[in-house]
């Protein structure tokens, strides 16, 4: 399964999200091999746009370590926006962005520079035929749907020659990405335009076919958070090359902690299998904290469908869409303003603690004063003995992450050699770049060996992106070189290697489109998201004969499919008809949350669930 049989060492990429410049730079400092970030417009997170100036600063920092910067231009585009999209992409190419993550096929036909294109998860790639097509028409990397099993991922990796990218951590959309129109249909906010209203996180009443309430005020479409930390090596053995953390709206503490956690995992795997895997970027990451993934925002964790196509364990966060955090322990007893917890965790004044009450509603309190396992609160609490307590706000950990928590530097080697008029200083970085600085200097004999002093002086690299790995003084050991001269040499050498590194940075360019490639289907529905004439022409030229316009163009219809999902309410509630003959929901159950009312249809043949607008 996958590409594990290849004799080539594969470059592995840890891809981290960034809302802004500060977070992008911290992601790279904490071990990301690449970051993805939204430009000023056309990114699928409307609230996370960034200026060209900020993006250029990120590029300069990232490329120092051969880390890459991808821009999300992954909304669907309207006809009147195509020229603006062209101008934006040209600007992104000019400042050195490595690739665009896109879903709208018009970008393959616009007048663009040869920047790489990556197929976004909104392209809904879950089959070999789709992946092969995307490769043929010029995509350089393909993001797979999050719902796939390890076997399905391996089959796709085997079938294509471009890198495959998979999500490994973060929030999950209940619907196949790019196949959700609920937000637009009910709130006139298009998820395909970066304005998702998160219909899936609402509390719903679930009704059976006869209108009887089965569940009340439960978040039955809200999934737990993805966590593949114990499956990373399995993913790599499937053939995956890019491991993606979700979260372009997440805060800086989240990105630092989660990126550092997966960076450590990948480093261990690469060290254990040096002939199979290596990181795609360079630099030593020095962490000043111990990453703990359970301390960052999470609704509980799930592997989703990775392990098995029909998992029997819960994958939904039915009782709350909020962060549950880390498990602390169980209540020993509670007395008015005091809670005693059986735990080996260190609780701190100011921690946020939560639990599910008798009605399964997430309830919380702040630790006002902590004495051992006794937590005093400002408000009276009544919590039954044995109740599980979680911490979704760790003050000490947050305070730590608010500081400077990582440093990333490139190793350099310095060699000194005599020249007729002074010395030549050759500097080489760990990427293999080198530069030489010549210094005019009288050959004055030293009274003692200068090696230790030179190591000290060259080792003072302060705020640069480098650290000294080795110093070879060669035939200069008997020369006296004043510290002021050493300081000048060091400065000039660092400037020279930085220039050499920038010049040597290798950009990879867009592949040519195979105009003869045939799209796997001949008909496209509205939820295939064709919103402009160029995209329509693209599909037609690749064999598609019938194309319905996107909902955002044609408007919503009462019988439109709003969500298609592998997640199934029947299976979640333990009443899958493959496992039991007792059908507690009937053929036509429905869910209601305020003015959001959806009919549930079970496509048992394909083991998926479909939601449409409910018809009274």
Query: Largest sheet, if any?
Result: 8 strands, parallel, barrel
* Helical coverage, percent range: 10-25%
The tally of helices reads 14
Radius of gyration: 28 Å
Spans where pLDDT lies below 50 across 5 or more residues:
none
Structural class: alpha/beta
- How many individual β-strands? 31
Strand content: 25-35%
Give the neighbour order of strands across the main sheet. Answer: 1-2-3-4-5-6-7-11
Distance between the termini: 48 Å
Question: What gross morphology would you assign?
Answer: globular
Instruction: Name the average pLDDT.
Output: 94
Task: Quickly list its features.
616 residues; alpha/beta; 14 helices; 26% strand
Chain-wise SSE layout:
Blueprint: E1 10-18, H1 21-29, E2 34-37, H2 52-64, E3 68-72, H3 82-94, E4 99-102, E5 116-119, H4 128-136, E6 141-143, H5 150-159, E7 164-170, H6 182-187, E8 204-207, E9 213-218, E10 225-227, H7 232-238, E11 242-245, H8 252-272, E12 277-279, E13 284-287, E14 301-302, E15 326-335, E16 338-342, E17 352-356, E18 362-366, E19 369-371, E20 374-376, E21 388-393, H9 395-401, E22 406-419, E23 422-429, E24 434-440, H10 451-459, E25 466-472, H11 483-504, E26 523-524, H12 533-541, E27 546-547, H13 551-554, E28 561-565, H14 569-572, E29 590-593, E30 596-603, E31 608-613
Helix pairs in contact: 1-2, 1-8, 5-7
Summary?
The chain is an alpha/beta fold and 616 residues long. It is 23% helix and 26% strand. The strands form five sheets. It has an eight-stranded parallel β-barrel, surrounded by six helices. The protein has a seven-stranded antiparallel sheet with strand order 18-17-21-15-16-20-19, with no helix packed on it. Strands 9-8-29-30-31-28 form a six-stranded antiparallel sheet.
């Amino acid at each position: 399964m996958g590409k594990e049989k290849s004799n080539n060492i594969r470059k592995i990429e840890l891809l981290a999200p960034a809302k802004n410049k500060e977070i992008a730079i911290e992601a790279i400092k904490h071990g990301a091999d690449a970051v993805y970030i939204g430009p000023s417009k056309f990114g699928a997170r409307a609230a996370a746009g960034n200026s060209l100036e900020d993006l250029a600063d990120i590029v300069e920092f990232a490329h120092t370590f051969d880390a890459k910067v991808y821009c999300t231009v992954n909304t669907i585009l309207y006809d009147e926006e195509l020229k603006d999209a062209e101008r934006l992409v040209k600007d992104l190419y000019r400042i050195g962005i490595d690739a665009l993550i896109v879903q709208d096929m018009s970008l393959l036909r616009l007048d663009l520079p040869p920047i790489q294109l990556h197929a976004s998860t909104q392209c809904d790639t879950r089959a070999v035929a789709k992946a092969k097509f995307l490769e043929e028409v010029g995509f350089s990397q393909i993001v797979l749907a999050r719902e796939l099993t390890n076997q399905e991922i391996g089959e796709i990796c085997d079938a294509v020659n471009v890198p495959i990218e998979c999500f490994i951590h973060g929030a999950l959309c209940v619907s196949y990405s790019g196949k959700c129109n609920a937000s637009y249909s009910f709130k006139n906010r298009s998820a395909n335009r970066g304005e998702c209203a998160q219909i899936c996180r609402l509390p719903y009443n679930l009704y059976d076919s006869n209108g009887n309430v089965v569940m009340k005020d439960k978040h039955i479409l809200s999934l737990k958070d993805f966590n593949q930390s114990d499956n990373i090596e399995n993913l790599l053995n499937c053939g995956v090359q890019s491991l993606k953390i979700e979260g372009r709206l997440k805060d800086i503490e989240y990105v630092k902690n989660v990126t550092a956690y997966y960076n450590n995992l990948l480093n261990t795997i690469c060290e254990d299998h040096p002939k199979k895997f290596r990181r795609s970027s360079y630099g030593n990451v020095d962490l000043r904290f111990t990453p703990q993934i359970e301390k960052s925002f999470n609704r509980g964790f799930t592997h989703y469908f990775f392990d098995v196509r029909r998992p029997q364990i819960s994958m939904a966060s039915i009782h709350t869409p909020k962060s549950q955090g880390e498990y602390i322990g169980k209540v020993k007893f509670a007395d008015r303003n005091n809670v005693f917890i059986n735990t080996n965790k260190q609780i701190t004044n100011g921690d946020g603690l939560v639990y599910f009450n008798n009605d399964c509603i997430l309830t919380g309190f702040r630790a006002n004063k902590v004495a051992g396992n006794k937590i005093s609160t400002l408000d009276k609490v009544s919590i039954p003995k044995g109740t599980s307590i979680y911490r979704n706000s760790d003050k000490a950990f947050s305070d730590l992450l608010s500081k400077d928590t990582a440093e990333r530097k490139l190793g350099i080697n310095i060699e000194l050699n005599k020249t007729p008029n002074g010395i030549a200083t050759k500097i080489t970085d760990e990427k293999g770049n080198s530069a030489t600085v010549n210094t005019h200097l009288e050959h004055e004999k030293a009274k003692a060996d200068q090696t230790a002093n030179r190591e000290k002086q060259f080792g003072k690299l302060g705020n640069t992106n480098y650290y000294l790995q080795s110093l070879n003084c060669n035939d200069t050991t008997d020369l006296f070189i004043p510290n002021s001269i050493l300081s000048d040499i060091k400065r000039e050498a660092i400037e020279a290697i930085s220039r050499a590194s920038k010049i040597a940075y290798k950009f990879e360019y867009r592949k040519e489109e195979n105009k003869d490639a045939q799209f796997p289907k001949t008909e496209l529905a509205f939820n295939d998201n064709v919103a402009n004439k160029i995209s329509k022409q693209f599909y037609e030229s690749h064999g598609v004969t019938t194309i319905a316009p996107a909902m955002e163009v044609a408007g919503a219809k009462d019988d439109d499919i709003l969500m298609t999902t592998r997640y199934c309410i029947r299976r979640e509630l333990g009443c899958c008809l493959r496992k039991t003959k007792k059908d507690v929901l009937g053929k036509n159950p429905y869910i209601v949350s305020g003015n959001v009312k959806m009919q549930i249809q079970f496509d048992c043949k394909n083991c998926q669930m479909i939601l449409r607008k409910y018809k009274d």
